[in-house]
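Predict the 3D structure for this chain.
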Amino acid sequence: MNYRVLLVENDENQGKVTKDFLEMSGYRVTHCLNGNSGLEEYFSAYYDIIILEVVLPQIDGFTIAKKIRENNKKIPIIFLTVCSRNEFRIEGFRTGGDDYILKPYSAEELKLRMDAIMRRTKRTYNSSMESYNLGPFRFNYSEHSISSPRLGTRHLTKREADVLRLLCVYKNRIMRRDIALKTIWGENDYFMGRSMDVYITKLRKILKMEEGVSINNIHNTGFKLEVEENCL
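Done. Predicted structure below.
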């Protein structure tokens, strides 16, 4: 399975129990304790599903959901809250929530609800994330292939495809090295960083086959996949 989960839960103990249980069940979980760090984390990495406590320090869960929905209409969102008032539940669904779980809850119940949502939505959600238009290039992640008029069709290794997909997620924005390494390799390591540089070099050579698309180094920060507007 290996779906990536962003869990924003300000109860540290409950969050740890939930994180441990979900990871034992095959999910990969990042746990944040407040709204600011949760929102920052969402925009710094790729996630498959979001779990949000409604009442959070700094930024509440509903506000986070609204900001996420401005960026992504399809990613599943589950709200957690102690409030059972009907107007809260309505607000949760109005802000784009897919489910609403009252606290206290069991990690097993949450996991089962997540499983159900992923079964219903993953195919359609992933279909929007599997194919990318990059100017004259068409990148199909599920087939690990990239094509263009000059290039024809080129097959990529899985790791090349993983790196290119993350670059696509951050298209025209900076993809930080540390985030890329943790997202794709699971940790930020010197030797893994050298390996990533090799894949970036290979992808850069492919993209040079056409004009208007490039991978640029951002000094001491990371990389940026730049696609000129007139090539979109």
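The domain at 135-231 is CATH 1.10.10.10 (Arc Repressor Mutant, subunit A).
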